[in-house]
Each structure stands twice: as structure tokens, then as C-alpha cells.
Fold:
Amino acid sequence: MKKIILYGLCLLMVWELNGCKKDSFPGADVAPFIAAFDIRDIYKGQDVKLSKSNMFGSELLTGIVVSDHSGGNLPAGLLAVQDKHRLNKLRGIALDIGAEADKYVTGDSVIINLNGGVLTKVDGLLEIKGIAGSAITKVSSGNVIEVKKLTTAQLLADPDAYESTMGTIVKGGFDPLPVKGDILSGTKLLNDGFGNMNLVTDPKAKFADSSAPVLANFTGIVLNKQINPDSLAPQFYLRTSADMRVLSSEINIPPVIITGFMSDVKGGDGNYEYAQLLATKDIDFAQTPFAFVVTNNANASTPTGPPNKGWATGDMRTFKFNMFNGKVSKGQFFYVGGAGQKINGSGSTSMSSSFWARSFNYTSQGGDGFGKETGGLFANSGNAFGMAVFADSAVTANSVPVDVIFISTGGSLFAEGSATKGYKIANTDFYDIIDPISLNEQHFYQQGTNTLCFSYNTKDVGYFNMLGGIYDLKLGRWTKARAQVNVELTKASLLPEIEGLGATTLVE
Structure:
């Protein structure tokens, strides 16, 4: 009986899968709209005349215009439209519609009948040609477009994904650095700390004679260019003068930058932890004293809660080393930390031949001015710890560091209100005192966009946390942001392992 029932069920399933297949959704119609994502996927290297049959039964594209020809900088006749109708992925497409493109501005919502248009590539840019002005209907105008923060690294890694879309490259500067009288006109190499790409300004653009800034946010459209048969190069186009928001016209170079740290040596940490620093200029500490401060925010560290005096809170929250003796030269690594002066804890290679701006036994001696003696200068897990360099040996609640880094995000780090409490940051590759997008002030770690940090690395084997990047002294900025590389050391490791390949370098 069981076999008969099972056989009957199988026959029923076969009938449902085959007999009913033809009329699964009787009366259903194909949606008339197609996403830019799907349009781009139709092109396979050859021109395609668009029709319902090759657009999956659809023929209409709906999206938001991101082009604006009022500034005279975009390629003539191109209308750029973007949408997120497929998999919530932002994609754009350019349409060559001649003079009709001038009628539309950023924020216009449009519906475009693509039937009969030709999908083609022109010098590497995917375009649709042959669309008449009458095939485009403007639904509304003034639609707000969320500003998408882009990095040059993202654009260079996947040019096709960003083509004909709008975005903002923040904290961008030019290489070479502009001098007095330099203007935007022409093609300039734009760097944002993640890579280089071209910013293109037509000499006839209305803003072509604008002064080239030292640092700015650039909002515009990505249009790709074919540089060889297998490679596209993204080009960035501003639309109007409002697309450039100047952040700085001056160069401020931190005299000292943090380039690494040893927070968990092989064996006992006490008196063997240290930080690696790099001088960007010649410094005589006897003439210009500096300070190095560490903060530990474990739940047991006192005082608890947000730090009332910031980096100067003291007790078990912050610990200070004053740097007031000796000299360092531009480009020289130097160190601050325990009196052990070993590369990887007890019994390892001595680093005493290196310059130590300050070292003492912090397990039995309190900090210079504040901070109780401690068996662990740097935290090894859990809540955030950080370190900062100050161009003064006197550190108060109002002191602003010249460089700062944080590891992790947990703990009572920041409280906003009538009495804002927290750890002040500097303008670095990771942090901004002014939010580059909103221009709101944000002076503290964990305030606004200041949330980036490095990671804990604790396995009691002796990892040196190398923070490798490239700082350009001529440009006065990071051209390659610091990245954490965990270098596993042994007791026999030598200095080149933490100062050589992969370490932060200065260029000029």
C-alpha cells in the first residue's frame, strides 16, 4: 500500500512539473522597466541594437540624472543616468542625445524608451546612441541624491562598476602640488591617499580658471577611457564650480608620525612594550620637547566613564612619556617605551643602539606628569587603546595631538553634550577634525566619521604591528594610508625586520 501511495505521489509531481509548466503565471506581463545594471550586461564587445527581445521584454529605463552641462565641462551631448533597481547596486549609463542633454540637470527623474537605441562603446565609454529627445520624459526635478564617498582605489579596481555614476572623492590633492597661479584647466593627477587618477577639466569650462587647491572634496562623474585593448582608466569630471569644496590651502606636516608598536611580546610584557615613531624633520628635543601618551580603556581602568580630561586624564586611563633629550633627523625611526629596549621581550635582540626619545621602567615608575605605574602599557584585548604624539611636553584636556592612532572601538571613549568628553584627534590619514562631507566639526575619536581603527593582534608570539604607508613631504599628505601588517618576530629578530620592507616611508 505504501508503495502504491508513493508511486501516485510521484506521478502527481511529474504532472505538476510538466503539465502545468506552460501556464505557471497565466495573464502575467513582463515589467516594462529595465535597470542600468542589466543594460550594461547586454554589451558583450559588439554593438547591440536594443529591442524588447534582447531587453528581456522590457524597454523603459527609469533613473536619476547625474549630468549637468551648465558648467561646460562634460563631453557634449552626454546624458548620464543612474539607478539602483537591480540587486540594490548603483549603476549608470550614458546616452548620446546631442543638444537635448543640456535640458537636464542633476536630480531630474526621467523615463527613457530605449527601444531602437544602439548600445556601443566610444573610446572605452559605454553609451546608448540613437535615442530621440521625444523618447525621454522628465517625471520630476530636484530629487536629492545621496552623496557616495569614493576612493581612487575603488575606481581603479573596478572602473565599469562606477562608470556614469556620481560620487565624491574626499581629501583629494594634486601631484605635483599646485603653486601660486595654478588653475584647474587640463588633466591633473588626483590623489586621495588610496591611489592616483585623472581629474579632467575642459579649458573652456566655466570654472577652468579656478585656483587649484591643496586639499579639497571633488564631486563629479566617472567616465572611463580606453588606454589599451584590455584596460580602462577612470576619468573624473566635475560638473560645475560647486563640485569642488576647498578644505585647505595650506600644508601642515606633522613633525612626528606613529609607524608601529609592540604591544604583546613573547613572554612577559612588562617593561618591554614600545612604540615606533618617524621624524618628518630634524628635531632637537631639548629645544622643542614633545610628549607621547597612551590610553587604556579597559573596564577596570580608572577613572571609569568618558575621559574628563581627554589624553590628560591620567590614573590608569592615560600614561605620558616626555621627550626632552636628544636629536633625531628627518626620516629617522626612533622609539618610546620600556627600559628593556628589546625587540621581542626578555632574551631577544637589543635595540639600545637605536635612538630612544624616552624609556623607563613603567612597571615601577609612573608617567611623566600623569599615569600610574602599570604592568601593561598597551592593552592586549577588549576595549580600545590608543596613542598620540604632542608637539609639547605639557598635555592638557585641550591639547591637540600631531598624530594619533587607535586600536579597536570599545569602552567609554566619547560623550557628547554640554560638556563633551573624549580623546582629541588630529587631521591624519584616518581622522578629520572637520567632516569632509558635511563640514561638521568632529574633534574626537568616535565622533562623526572618526571611527576607523587598527585591530588587536595578541597571540603571545611577538607580533610587531607595522603601520606601513607613504607620506609625501612635498604634498604634505599621506599618498598611501597606513595599513597594519603583523610582522612575526623571534627572539633573534633584527631591526631591519621592523624598519625595512613594508615600513612607512617618506617621499619628497
Observations:
- Confidence is low (pLDDT under 50) at residues 1-28.
- Residues 65 and 81 are 4 Å apart (CA to CA).
- The first helix runs from residue 2 to 18.
